[in-house]
Fold this sequence. Notes:
Layout: H1 6-23, E1 30-40, E2 43-48, E3 51-57, E4 60-61, H2 70-81, E5 85-94, E6 98-104, H3 111-117, E7 122-123, H4 131-142, H5 156-168
Parallel strand pairs: 3-6
Antiparallel strand pairs: 1-2, 1-5, 2-3, 4-7, 5-6
Amino acid sequence: MRLFSLKQLQKTFLAAALLLFLALPCIGETFTGKVVKVTDGDTISVLHQGRPEKVRLAEIDCPERGQAFGKKSKEFASSITAGKIVRVEVRTVYRYGRTVGEVFLANGESLNRLLVKEGYAWWYRKYSSDISIGELEAEAREGKRGLWFGENPMPPWEWRSLKRQRKKYQ
Length: 170
């Protein structure tokens, strides 16, 4: 005995897929919401349509948890965003429906750029062609701000790669 016909299952699946697609932010969309969580320096959760939307900050890469300056990067991002209203300009939606965007504070300043300017993030050249972010990084380096105060800080993408290699050989 069949509970549902194949046609009913197809319609249900298509309806569910459409609802999921509509729930995801669209590229170019802008939304405003309260920051409800700071996961790390370059990932925050912002209330969007009544639920937390995880946002990865575009064009930058902050030190990872367990990496030098990872905790300080998160603390800096938290100190200026936690519980505050921000505007998110969605750049893309990638793997697992994760939103990537530029986040703007109430004063109109870009959080992404501020993290680089203050030495809490690298310009993520692999995913950005905006040389003005590279200029902010160069200024932070010259001024020995944040992570640039130390000797030869390791970019997070290299740190993650090393961590994967070590895990592979354990």
